Amino acid sequence: MSDDIILETRGLTKEFKGFVAVDNVNLKVKRGSIHALIGPNGAGKTTVFNLLTKFLPVTSGQILYNGQDITHQAAAQTARSGMVRSFQISAVFPHLTVLENVRVGLQRRLGTSFHFWKSERTLYSLNEEAMSLLEAVDLSAFAKLQTIELPYGRKRALEIATTLAINPELMLLDEPTQGMGHEDVSRVVELIRKVAANRTVLMVEHNMNVVSNLSDTITVLARGSVLAEGPYETVSKDPRVLEAYVGSTEEQHA
User: Fold this and answer.
1) What is the pLDDT of residue 122?
2) What is the pLDDT of residue 198?
3) pLDDT of amino acid 247
4) CA 117 to each of CA 42, 113, 114, 249: distance values in angstroms, whole numbers, following the listed order
5) E strands, the chain, where?
6) Which residues, other chains included, contact 99 with Cβ-Cβ below 8 Å and sequence gap of 6+?
7) Residues forming a β-bridge with 228
8) Domains parsed from the chain with CATH numbers
């Protein structure tokens, strides 16, 4: 595997009792890029993410990360190696403050997450780094607010901040703008662009404006297989892609 490919799948396949949800998917994600995985409902996008992050076992095929075969590696080991799906780390604690949530992420990196017997004062050394992460995602003004009080879009930004606390090399973002209004979408797009400056991002995203604005490469899935791949300008004009989406829409309204 070439050095500029951080993640590769070879013949990745997942079957559920005879139903093939992911069918022979070959994916190459370039280091330092933003790579989007798109497709109509039921295309297999989330299943691919679940295979990559070991929430599901692979039926056949290989997953290579930084040239190492991690197909049968445990989920926690994959995350520790630097490939992190945002919700793996960042299910936020609603009754902690915004700052405390990021501090928990930093504790995980230090290996002291479950040292509950220690005084809270021992965590104060992490505050400066936590505040720096909050500034990066435009949340420093909310540091002392209880997380439950955060608007939805800001909560997603906090999830990204807590993921960044682990210092991932490859971030997997699953529908990062789902359920957001226009203002929140714009904010999260800028946030993803900022955090991708020195790492790789692979995202599943349904919002085509977000995909066209952010992605270097787009892989289109349909019925579990790769239908097309390339930059947005190429993929968006591919008649097979248009048919997959239009067909999907017609079926939904049938």
Assistant:
1) 59
2) 86
3) 63
4) 46, 11, 9, 55
5) 5-16, 19-30, 34-38, 60-65, 68-69, 83-85, 170-174, 200-204, 217-222, 225-230
6) 127, 130, 131, 134, 143, 144
7) 220
8) 1-82+169-254 (3.40.50.300), 89-167 (no CATH)
CA 26, 18, 229 angle in degrees (round to 5)? 20
List, as one string, the DSSP characters of 136-192. HTT-GGGTTSBGGGS-HHHHHHHHHHHHHTT--SEEEEESTTTT--HHHHHHHHHHH
Task: Report pLDDT for 146.
Answer: 95
Kindly tell me the burial class for residue 254, based on how many C-beta atoms sit within 10 Å of its own C-beta (0-12, 13-18, 19 or more).
exposed
Closest to 130 measured CA to CA, from 156, 108, 151, 150: 108
Average pLDDT per block of 10 residues along the chain, 254 residues long: 88 95 97 95 93 96 97 92 76 88 80 50 78 92 95 89 89 90 89 91 92 95 95 92 71 41
Please tell me the predicted confidence (pLDDT) of residue 92.
Answer: 82
* CA dist., res. 191 & res. 197, Å (int): 10
pLDDT for the residue numbered 253: 40
